[in-house]
Design brief:
mainly alpha, 79% helix, Ferritin, single chain, 6 helices
Length: 151
């Protein structure tokens, strides 16, 4: 194992992603979200923490693999998607700006899809790690778009 793919570096990526995840704790759904009209396919609130915990771990491992040997564009896309991911909770739950949250989520989905497409021929393990994230964000985008239309 190279120095760049050492377990201490994996811990660094887990901490970076955990920091983004923890920023979302400051912006809880609360009464505002409870009062919004939501589509019938909205999952129960208890489902979000375990799903996001697994996804964040996968995002961290993907970042660790990407930064150990990918080109600058994959590294940039990984960073962009992480920033967009962190912004979403602030825009949607913090500012109560459904439209801005929707725009952020579209950009997030595009960045994840681009990262997935770049990883598929170059680093298949990264694609496998990012794939579930891509699917979940596409589903979340359908929820946010529906919330935007309903409210």
């Amino acid at each position: 194992m190279t120095a760049k793919r050492s377990y201490p570096m994996l811990a660094v990526f887990i901490l970076i992603v955990a920091g983004i995840a923890m920023s979302g704790i400051h912006f809880q759904p609360g009464a505002w979200y409870a009062d919004l009209d939501k589509p019938f396919w909205t999952p129960p609130n208890w489902l979000f923490p375990p799903v996001w915990s697994v996804l964040y771990l996968m995002i961290a491992v993907a970042g660790w693999l990407i930064f150990a040997g990918s080109d600058v564009w994959m590294k940039a896309l990984w960073g962009v998607q992480l920033v967009l991911n962190g912004l979403w909770s602030w825009l949607f739950f913090g500012l109560h700006r459904i439209g801005l949250g929707l725009v952020d989520m579209v950009a997030l989905l595009v960045s994840i899809a681009a990262l997935f497409a770049m990883a598929l021929p170059r680093q298949r393990a990264v694609a496998w790690l990012i794939g579930p994230y891509l699917v979940w964000v596409a589903y979340a985008l359908s929820l946010v778009a529906s919330i935007y239309v309903l409210n």
